[in-house]
Amino acid sequence: MGTTTYHEANVTVLGQPPEQGRWFLIPLGMMILLCLGSVYSWSIFRTPLENELGISATQSLLPYTVALVFYAATMPIAGFYIPRLGTRVTTAIGGVVVGLGYILSSFATQVEVLLLTYGLIAGTGVGMVYGVPMVVASRWFPDKKGLAVGLTIVGFGLSPLITAPLTNQLISVYTVRPTLRILGITFTAIILAIALTMKLPPKGWHPRQTVTASTGIAAKVYPRSLFKSRLFYGLWICYAIGTLIGLSAIGISSPVGQEIIRINPTMAARSVSLFALFNGISRPLFGWLSDRFKPQYVALLSYVLILIACILMVNAQTGQVATYLIAFCLFWFCLGGWLAMAPTLTLRFFNPDQYAQNYGIVFTAYGIGALIGTLVTGRIRDLFGSYNYVFYPMAFLAVIGIVVASVLLKRENSTVEPVLNENLHEESCN
Q1: What are the record's GO terms for cellular component (predicted)?
Q2: Would you kindly state where each structural domain of the chain is located, as residue ranges?
Q3: Are the C-beta atoms of residues 2 and 212 closer than 8 Å to each other?
């Protein structure tokens, strides 16, 4: 049976025909995620807050860790409410919560208060909004799902390139507390304004060039439950490994450069900007690859690159700046890749009509990776006295990822691939 098509003139996106107007939703989604990605710029706040509140370096890291945990924990919950509340309402509520977290943090006088305001409140707001731009992009681009999602989440990956220097400049002019307030108000205003554009296409809409199921393409049959599919467990484990390694590398990028390679702090900070660029570039690239190649092959590429980076760092010595830069560009590159692969593969493996709920559940792997990655690397450094030893368990995890991807990231017999071009969308976009 063919799907209902909607090509009438009354279907528009931002006043444009949908095939053209839908492209504007990508930069708008990127802008939302750029605001949310400021959570990765927390390091800019740490030293001023340590001086103002009289707290230790370990204490100043806690709000960031708590924010990551609540961000990941809120994602699956928000996924179930997005279809009920709607994408625009969810975005608006989440934007207000994010801004409120920043604003309340500006009044904090104790680190425990920051755990509540920045960690719990702002982190929860990020988790509420994060999935919406990806849901919107995936529905308007059923023919280019991976590319659209990958481009949209570039905003989150590249956010530190913009928000970190902006935050640093604001702190130098206004000090840390007013800066938190300014960012909170600004983020709220931007997200609320863009929330109005975050709407889904009407039921049955698809691009004009899309071929429907009636043309002889076999329809996909999706698993009825994530938890009864080995694909889910394969994707979850691979995602957890990829994010654990990537987030671990992000957390130690600057210290490793200073301790092992002996570069100065200024160069270490500039290097992080380079790494963030690779983190952003990889997202549309891996999204595009996930559209066109078997998922296990794309996952294997990521893990092989991680192994190369680990080998480089295990053998790195003082003064080998190029080795350090190449290795950490690969670590950040692969993390960005997984943040594009996971949502794209969720769309491919499972019913896209339930994408918000499904990816929320898959995203719990990120939370586990964030929690373990930020805690274990520091512990290894304390036990062995050097960050060199961090790269051995990373390499071991990459090998496990290769095995899991080879065995579990294959389609089950119950899931029928389209017999022609896999990029053609067979189902209507609801």
Answers
A1: plasma membrane
A2: 18-195, 220-408
A3: yes
Encoding tokens for residue 295? 């998922």
The CATH number of 18-195 is 1.20.1250.20
Beta bridge partners of 213: none
Q: Which residues of 343-371 are buried (b: 16+ CB within 10 A; e: fewer)?
A: bbbbbbbbbbbbbbbbbbbbbbbbbbbbb
SS3 string, 35-51, reads HHHHHHHCHHHHHHHHH
Gyration radius (Cα) of the chain, Å: 22
Tell the residue number behind the tokens 């995602």, with chain if given: 239
Q: Is the pTM of this model over 0.85?
A: no
**In a 3-state reduction of DSSP, which class is residue 418?**
coil
Collapse the DSSP code of 197 into the 3-class scheme (helix H, G, I; strand E, B; otherwise coil) and give the result: coil
Q: Classify domain 220-408 at the CATH topology level.
A: Growth Hormone; Chain: A; (1.20.1250)
Report the distance separating Cα 183 and Cα 374, nearest Å.
25
CA torsion through residues 9, 14, 16, 21, sign: negative
Locate the DSSP E strands across 196-346.
none
Shared fold status for 18-195 and 220-408: yes
> What would the two tokens of residue 236 be?
């979850």
